[in-house]
Amino acid sequence: xxxxxxxxxxxxxxxxxxxxxxxxxxxxxxxxxxxxxxxxxxxxxxxxxxxxxxxxxxxx
Length: 60
Ligand SMILES: [Zn+2]
Known about the structure:
This protein is mostly loops. The chain has a domain at 18-50. The protein is built from one helix and two strands. The protein has a two-stranded antiparallel sheet with strand order 1-2. Strand 1 and strand 2 form a beta hairpin. It is elongated, with a radius of gyration of 17 Å. It binds zinc ion. This is DUF2256 domain-containing protein. InterPro entries: UCP037205.
């Protein structure tokens, strides 16, 4: 007889983070292949990666 109305949903594994591609401004949803570097992902695809704005700073 326990009601499952717990307000905490931190364990919701169906939630996937998403972010906006800096090139095409489309929303990209988290992918397993990005798990390692999700924080660094800026482009939704290789195509956008190549199309990145020319104002990028020189990075090593
Ligand atoms: Zn893109």
